[in-house]
Amino acid sequence: RKEVEQDPGPFNVPEGATVAFNCTYSNSASQSFFWYRQDCRKEPKLLMSVYSSGNEDGRFTAQLNRASQYISLLIRDSKLSDSATYLCVVNGGTYKYIFGTGTRLKVLA
Amino acid sequence: IAGITQAPTSQILAAGRRMTLRCTQDMRHNAMYWYRQDLGLGLRLIHYSNTAGTTGKGEVPDGYSVSRANTDDFPLTLASAVPSQTSVYFCASSELAGVSDTQYFGPGTRLTVL
Questions:
Q1: Smallest Cα–Cα separation from A45: which of A86, A16, A81, A14?
Q2: DSSP string, B18-73
Q3: Per-residue pLDDT tens for A81-103?
Q4: Dihedral angle over CA of A76, A78, A84, A90, nearest 10
């Protein structure tokens, strides 16, 4: 089993739709969690950190479920500019950032 | 300079040649990292450094070496390139090496080894 698993997609959604991605992790001792966004042929950029209590940033909501060992990302009112690959990152110790392979989102006009 | 820069942007290299990928950051971050990204595998850590003068091995260090002579620069060297080292290489940095520290990435170097 991979340490971090994501559905590769693509998720094709119309503008204005709500879409959710999940990411599962295998190491129950993982300490911190992040969602990064990566545009085609570009570097990953931090979208948001994920906290135990859940957190929201505008149209984006991230949640952590430690009992079931997954994190989620919800995007409301999808925009064309949201089209990208979303990387789940789990940190299990110093220097030990484990990246998922990413979920590809296409928002359609 | 703002953030992290990498050079070259892309490179085609003959197998057996030596190659150094450059990485420079101007954020005065203590920790720096080198990753490779391959289709279907996600980013994998090659080497890291938590401060100038110290380096450590990541998940896939074989065939690569690094040095950290100062805070800003973290070059990655392929001593004798092989085709399996064809990949996109990203340098990253974080203020500290703590588990909750955010990593910031450079624009990447696309390397093809023939």
A1: A86
A2: -EEEEEEESS--SEEEEEEEETTTEEEEEEEEEETTEEEE-SS-TTEEE--SSSSB
A3: 999 999 999 987 777 889 999 99
A4: 0
Cβ contacts of B36 on chain A, cutoff 8 Å: none
Give me the amino acid identity at B43.
L
Is B34 in CB contact (< 8 Å) with chain A?
Answer: no
Q: What is the pLDDT along chain A (109 residues), one digit of tens a residue?
A: 788 999 988 999 999 999 999 999 998 888 889 999 999 989 999 999 998 888 999 999 999 999 999 999 999 999 999 999 999 999 877 778 899 999 999 999 9
Picking from A30, A37, A43 by the largest number of B CB atoms within 10 A of its own CB, the best residue to mutate is: A43
Question: Rounded to whole angstroms, how far apart are CA atoms B114 and A45?
Answer: 30
A26 Cα to chain B: minimum distance (Å): 16
DSSP letter assigned to residue B84: G
Cβ–Cβ below 8 Å for B105 and A99? no
* Chain B residues near residue A49 by CB distance under 8 angstroms: 100, 102
Contact A43 B42 (CB under 8 A): no
- Identity (one letter) of the amino acid at A66? R
